[in-house]
Specification:
heterodimer, A: 147 residues, alpha+beta, seven-stranded antiparallel β-sheet, 3 helices, 33% strand, B: 169 residues, 30% strand
């Protein structure tokens, strides 16, 4: 038996929020990707996870930016120094190679409440881009801008 | 000399404005904490509000909330943290470091802290934005509920991670 009517749309609150910001974005598997120009020499890409996490009343989406990447593990002393970094907002996650990706990576992330208005969301996204770029520069001294 | 005096006066006026703004933010956070009905008091240093939570086997966990904010545009970010493991004067082992640094929770992150006596600790923290708090908060206010649940989350993850790390290798 054929089912008639229009196809059901899956709720996508973070997608709706990004659209409301009027920022340009790309829709990739599981993520929204946004590109930022930091200055004339540097740029930064941020990723917004489509999946909303909840805990009691909290409903948040992770927004992150890659800040370091290598085929080799970060030496323990460097990892110690990196995780001693005092951040006024957000935090760092050290990713080890997995089925999904084959590199060691560090991402700077913060979580955005899904209840934010578009203007506030833009500020959060901007904070990830700016902080991510600063961390990338600090963790890769002398290297070309990659992320 | 007159110019120097004017500059001093201007600097003083600016400091007063900054102090007033800091006091307002702190009062706003305290009002929200009071509305959560959780028992938080100001730390001795004045840098944090501190609350203590009971856990199994008589364990207690302290949660700290920074009175001051990191400001990014209109975001007023306050850290909410708990100490997961005190490591002593040597940094955490690679295993401890990987166990925490690679652990992505729903929100927040682990980080390292080294105090003035060069003692290392692993902490877990999350942040909240006091700019989103209601100016006149009540216990049923969604922003107050969010703050309360963020504190619960830091408390829960901190305790779980602490038990895991204390089990050792």
């Amino acid at each position: 038996m054929a089912i008639q009517g229009s196809p059901q749309t899956v709720p996508d609150p973070i997608g709706d929020l990004i659209k409301a910001t009027k920022l340009s974005y790309a829709d990739i598997t599981g993520l929204y990707k946004l590109s930022y120009i930091i200055d004339e020499k540097r740029k930064q890409t941020i990723y917004v996870r489509k999946e909303t996490h909840d805990y009691r009343s909290l409903k948040v989406n992770e927004v992150y930016s890659l800040v370091w990447e290598s085929p080799n593990a970060m030496p323990a002393d460097q990892l110690t120094t990196t995780f001693l970094t005092r951040l006024g907002i957000g935090g760092l996650i050290y990713e080890q190679p997995s089925e999904a990706q084959k590199l060691y990576r560090i991402r700077f992330r913060l979580t955005v409440p899904i209840s934010l208005n578009p203007e506030a969301a833009k500020e959060y996204f901007n904070a990830v881009a700016v902080t991510g770029d600063a961390l990338e520069a600090a963790l890769n001294p002398g290297a070309e801008d990659r992320f | 000399m007159t110019g120097l005096l004017a500059l001093t006066a201007l600097t003083s006026a600016l400091h007063m404005q900054v102090d007033e703004a800091k006091a307002k933010v702190e009062a706003k956070v305290m009002a929200a904490l009071t509305a959560t009905k959780l028992n938080f008091t100001k730390s001795e240093s004045g840098l944090s509000f501190v609350g203590e939570f009971d856990h199994l086997n008589g364990r207690k966990r302290r949660i700290y909330i920074a009175t001051g904010a990191t400001t990014l545009q209109n975001i007023q970010s306050h850290v909410v943290y708990t100490t997961v493991l005190v490591c002593g004067k040597t940094p955490p082992s690679e295993k401890q470091l990987l166990l925490t640094a690679s652990s992505a929770r729903k929100l927040g992150a682990f980080y390292l802290y080294k105090d003035k006596a060069d003692v290392y600790a692993i902490r877990f923290s999350a942040h909240f934005d006091s700019a989103l708090l209601s100016p006149n908060p009540s216990s049923t206010d969604p922003t107050v509920e969010n703050l309360k649940d963020l504190i619960y989350f830091v408390n829960q993850v901190g305790e779980e991670a602490s038990l895991l790390l204390e089990k050792g290798d």
